[in-house]
Amino acid sequence: MLAGMNNYAELSRAELADRLMTRDAQVAALEQAAREPDVAGGRDRAALADSEERIRAILQTAVEGIITIDGHGLIESVNPAAEKIFGWTAAELFGRNISMLMPAPYRAEHDGYLSRYQQTGRAKIIGIGREVTGKRKDGSHFPMDLSVGEMLVAGRRMFTGIIRDITERRRLEREILEITDREQRRIGQDLHDGLGQHLTGIELLAEVLQQKLAARSPAHSARAGEITKYVREAIQQTKLLARGLAPVVVESEGLMSALCELAVHSEKLFGVHCVVHCPAPVLLADHTVALHLYRIAQEAVTNAIRHGQAKTITLRLAVAHGHLELRIADNGLGLPAGAPSADERPPGSGMGLRIMRYRAGMIGGDLAFAPNPGGGLVVSCSLRLPGAEAPAERSHP
């Protein structure tokens, strides 16, 4: 119970939302009771004042930003943490549309979300915690965790948003990914320059031995030839692994060539049919973006083979309307039976899926999963190319 809690800043986000909605419901009930005269009217008013004081204490001390809006998206209350996060004061935000705290294209779509939810009951973000992009007073954008809950207060539909700025977390994730990429490159280079060279030396020695034994013992010469063959196959496997860990072709020849090499590598290593479609040349000047897209494709292909048991995989890279889309479709197991939406986690998803989402987020892309019409799964990553015109923003009160 809240009665024993003095430090509301220690509450978790879930506990905070639960307390807020529980107290709002209590306040509504007490307000109704206060309007109906009875013997305990004084006690009801005291209880109402106590509940209001507790709610104010929660709002003032919570480390997360808390914003409440009405059914039309107009802001009714903002706590100090939210003021700090967005750079606006509560007085500046009161009565204005919540979409002013969102960048395009979310800003233009927000009112439609609320309207569709109230008409259909289908939530896109209400009741679901997710990462979104916020917009500060100075116009800068930042990543944030957002949880939205619905409540009825005195018969009015209201929504409470709990916000956490995750800029620092994203920075740490970016550093981890960069360290991981560097380590993968180092291991790949060690495989190529170290183990690969040792195996090449063994192959040469085996060939010399085969030649020396040819005249003396054809049978032993044949066995030496078999050793040479296996060592040569090991060298090829090592090169394929090295290229997968250190895809230098991404920087030297571009993303298209790297995806083609990934397809060839997958066919040789796993025995699947893997093809690349690129309707028109796609040239990315940003090697970091190209590398993240390559890693997303690499993870999607690996998941399709290992978890989806796919036999055919198609990679497609295309640009349309200022957006670049990378699409990986397979004919494997696809989404779980009865999956309610395209956002359902695909089979075998775990750390690999989270890393894919992080990579997409690092480059400002959207990662999505959908059933393949022909059976299987489609993984797509879409991002707006630099210089492409952003959707127009609507003005709001």
Structural commentary:
There is one protein chain. The longest helix is centred in the middle third of the chain and has 50 residues, at 167-216. Helix 1 (13-35) runs antiparallel to helix 2 (41-61) and helix 6 crosses helix 11. The protein is an alpha+beta fold. The chain has helices at residues 13-35, 41-61, 80-86, 90-93, 106-120, 167-216, 218-245, 249-253, 255-270, 287-306, 351-362; strands at residues 65-70, 75-78, 130-135, 141-153, 156-165, 273-277, 312-320, 323-330, 366-371, 377-384. A hairpin with a 5-residue loop joins strand 9 (366-371) and strand 10 (377-384). It folds into 3 domains: 2-165, PAS domain (Beta-Lactamase), CATH 3.30.450.20; 168-246; 265-388, Histidine kinase-like ATPase, C-terminal domain (Heat Shock Protein 90). The radius of gyration is 29 Å and the shape is elongated.
Tally the helices: what do you get? 11
> Which fold name fills CATH's third level, the topology of the largest domain?
Beta-Lactamase
**Parts with pLDDT < 50 across at least 5 consecutive residues:** 1-6, 338-344, 388-397
Largest sheet: 5 strands, antiparallel
CATH homologous superfamily title of the largest domain: PAS domain
The Rg value, from CA coordinates, equals 29 Å
The H/E string reads HHEEHHHEEEHHHHEHEEHEE
Tell me what portion of residues adopts beta-strand conformation: 15-25%
Structural class: alpha+beta
Number of strands: 10
Distance between the termini: 39 Å
Domain count = 3
By CATH, the architecture of the largest domain is named 2-Layer Sandwich
Report the top-level CATH class of the largest domain.
Alpha Beta
Q: How is the largest sheet built, in terms of strand order?
A: 2-1-5-4-3
Oligomer: single chain
**How confident is the prediction overall: mean pLDDT?**
77
Helical content, roughly?
Answer: 40-55%
